[in-house]
């Protein structure tokens, strides 16, 4: 009944996949209307229809990144969830904290691609107060989620109550962010097994 | 005796300061010949004399960043060094490790500016295999230096011998890299005192 709308949606998906491929290969420094158009075998003119300027393209790219990250599979967290009946408390605590953190690391090529784009976004985000505030808010929410798992683990007696959950969460997030950067630059030195080992060593010291 | 050479050097300093200011304000995403020229009140034509293309400008910018980082003052490490006679062993170990790591954090506006540029360089570096390899080598050397201090602290009985110094150094570097990113995006939540507190909490857990 609404073929025009269907075409429009199909085109939007095509645009967002082209943006993703450009980001994965060239980063935000290589993100131009021309590069996205070439990736779609379209004209730059068609793209200006979607993005009147560079900033609109940038904002869209960050939006694609956010949606892709929200929608991506989280095998480690799902396998922990599958191990217990939801709400019984057994799927919470340290095992869940570990699973959530593992899912954030570049353990697979897909996750490395997505992390590479996140890390790349820091340059443009730090140059734009509005984008920087959005990123800051994103990382604050992520710390809150981590703090929830830390508090669960403390309640279950798996982690020491010595430090407030928020402090532990801030430190844990820092550790994981840094490990992502290390692994992206030196995938040979930081294969998946070593990343997990470093994370486990960190959690054990808590 | 060599006024031409002196002019040339003065101009190079002017170019490198203009590149630095552009990077500090707009990041690598805003680094163009036009932006550097405007910063110097020069013509883009003059700049093409120095940089035939964008990649040459990029490589130069990374070089400026590296030199500025090598030359910057390191108050914490210097104060530790001042506390002992060089070579007596008392200036090594955990205190030196802590001082070196403190100097890497964005505790001052100058260090925040320099860290902001380093973090911004990750996008362009990850998009270029040669630049990525150079960054990887830089971080590998930094891990080696950290491992040296960890090994000293282990020898002095200040740190447990349970883990190899290289493993501890990799984890420590990850933690500091991540803390830099957190503090750049949320300077209000991560003021200097909290950064130092998080670092001390991390070192205490080792």
TrEMBL record, chains A, B:
Gene3D superfamilies: Tetracycline Repressor, domain 2. One of its GO terms (molecular function) is DNA-binding transcription factor activity. Residues 32-51 bind DNA. Keywords: DNA-binding, Repressor, Transcription, Transcription regulation. Residues 9-69 form the HTH tetR-type domain. PANTHER family: HTH-TYPE TRANSCRIPTIONAL REGULATOR RUTR, TETR-FAMILY TRANSCRIPTIONAL REGULATOR. This is TetR family transcriptional regulator.
């Amino acid at each position: 009944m609404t073929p025009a709308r269907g075409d429009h949606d199909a085109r939007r998906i095509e645009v967002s996949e082209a943006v993703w491929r450009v980001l994965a290969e060239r980063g935000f420094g290589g993100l131009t209307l021309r590069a996205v158009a070439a990736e779609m075998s379209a004209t730059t003119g068609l793209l200006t229809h979607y993005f009147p300027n560079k900033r609109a393209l940038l904002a869209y790219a960050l939006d694609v990144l956010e949606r892709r990250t929200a929608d991506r599979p989280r095998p480690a967290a799902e396998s922990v969830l599958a191990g217990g009946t939801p709400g019984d408390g057994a799927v919470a605590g340290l095992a869940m904290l570990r699973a959530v953190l593992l899912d954030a690391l570049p353990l697979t090529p897909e996750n490395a691609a997505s992390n590479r784009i996140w890390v790349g976004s820091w340059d443009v985000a730090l140059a734009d107060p509005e984008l920087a505030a959005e990123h800051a808010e994103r990382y604050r929410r992520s710390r809150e989620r981590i703090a929830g798992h830390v508090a669960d683990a403390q309640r279950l007696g798996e982690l020491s109550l010595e430090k407030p959950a928020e402090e532990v969460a801030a430190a844990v997030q820092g550790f994981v962010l840094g490990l992502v950067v290390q692994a992206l630059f030196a995938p040979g030195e930081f294969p998946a097994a070593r990343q997990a080992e470093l994370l486990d060593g960190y959690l054990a010291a808590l």
